[in-house]
Specification:
Strand content: under 5%
Shape: elongated
Number of strands: 0
Order of helices and strands: HHHHHHHH
Radius of gyration: 38 Å
Length: about 190
């Protein structure tokens, strides 16, 4: 078989071929080689045998395995520096603040100051837990009604410190109950 009879054009494109398409392509190539070998009628069996050997040795795209550096590069996202993160945050905030009115924009700038954000996160993770706030509200509501009822029935005046004391006690009771619940749950249902 000569090169003039079946010119082969190679185009170097970054085309991703699925394994099924690759198998079909290899099958078509094998059939073409066999039909060309039959047409040649033994004129060049060495060339036909060489083509068969190359075809048998060649790996398809499905058989190829990526190297460890290729898989690692694909699986880990690029690490952003502190500067890149801050720049991205500032850009996002700029775009969001464009659609706000003056009062909202001013409040947003105040709330998103680094000191205010860090303080808010720390308080949110420690004392300003939802369980503590709910406990404080329940204790203050029920406790104040009870104290006010008793004071009215017995006939003494309230001093004004009852509400803050009930709020503090409710907060502590709420936080303690959340801690006890989570502790009991971690003992009963350990993580897998």
């Amino acid at each position: 078989m000569s090169h003039e009879q079946s010119p082969v054009k190679h185009e170097n494109k970054n085309v991703h071929v699925s394994p099924a398409e690759s198998r079909e392509h290899h099958e078509r190539l094998r059939e073409k080689i066999e039909s060309d070998a039959e047409k040649a009628g033994g004129k060049s069996t060495a060339e036909t045998e060489a083509r068969h050997e190359v075809h048998e040795v060649a790996q398809s795209s499905a058989e190829m395995t990526p190297t460890s550096s290729e898989t690692q590069a694909q699986s880990t996202p690029p690490v952003k520096t502190k500067y890149e993160k801050r720049k991205s945050f500032d850009t996002t905030m700029h775009h969001v603040r464009k659609d706000m009115n003056t009062a909202e924009r001013t409040l947003s700038k105040l709330v998103h100051q680094p000191v205010v954000e860090k303080t808010s996160e720390v308080v949110g993770k420690t004392i300003a837990r939802p369980s503590g706030i709910i406990g404080a509200a329940i204790a203050a509501g029920i406790g104040l009604l009870f104290v006010f009822g008793v004071a009215r029935y017995v006939g003494f005046e309230l001093s004004g410190s009852e509400m803050p004391l009930l709020l503090g006690a409710g907060l502590l009771i709420g936080l303690f109950s959340e801690w006890a619940y989570k502790s009991a749950r971690s003992i009963v249902l350990p993580k897998k």
